[in-house]
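Objective 1b: paired records.
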Amino acid sequence: MAKFHFSTKRLAISKANATMVAFVAIAAFIAVFSIVACRALLQQRSYQSRVITGKETAKRQLKDNLKSVEALNIAYQEFVGSSTNVLGGNPAGSGDKDGDNAKLVLDALPSDYDFPALASSLEKILTDANFTIESISGTDDEVAQAGTAVGPNPQPIPIPFEIAVSGNYESMQTLLSVLERSIRPIQIQTMTFTGTDTDISVSLTAQTFYQPAKNLNITSEVVK
């Protein structure tokens, strides 16, 4: 029976090689782990840096906003607290030219497309001026206008309408000035006169405006 003889030197070399391979494998694992860990730490550091920068930016913006709110509040109180309004009326009164400035501005340029309110306002103006109202017409487009896109800088949107009134020649001469005295801006587009000096009918097309409320666009940002 054959016998195998292994020298002590060969066994020592084999053992040393195995140990070296183990050390190389461990060193390679440690190196790869270190690279991956360093990369993850650098990514985390970069992310935290972006988060901190975003928070600082938001903090500065918030401070600026608080200062703006304070200044706006002071300006608003001065605007509504004046002894006479922009029309020269009494801020605490109930006449046509009375009311504080904030109310007058909202009446002049409301934030909603409200045709019934416009029709009531026109009816009162014309009735107080002793005109005989034949018709006040327009489109009650409030539902469709409710879907109008609103941004940070909304623009006035026209509300078209038509009115027909009658009266004598003298009263018709004051029609335009009566409409001009309305708190709401009115643009006359066409006018048609029919009748005689004692009985004149006037039909006109015109438009006034409303302006949607400003959207502050408060948003949140995800830092990636």
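Objective 1b, second protein:
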Amino acid sequence: MSAQAKIVACERVRHGVLQVTWDDGFAGPVDLHCTIERGGVYGFLNDAAAFARVAVVDDGQAIAWSDPDGDRIGFRAETLRARAMKRAFDAAA
């Protein structure tokens, strides 16, 4: 991934799965179920309404949610891109 590829869109597909699109045209689903199920700082995303409130932040460098305390919790674009590419590679194999 180019260090400059930014997220331009992020939509909820279903609870725990996002469709992420980057400015270079690459798009793919990102499954966050395992991360959410582990709990910790992501535990609040077990609530479907909270998960649906995802936003693109930092000029496309990340996505994030506001947790119940008002803290921003999220993922960097590079992390999401790696997950989406792995999923695409696994599906093609």
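The CA atoms of residues 4 and 61 lie 9 Å apart. The domain at 7-87 is CATH 3.30.2020.10 (NE0471 N-terminal domain-like).
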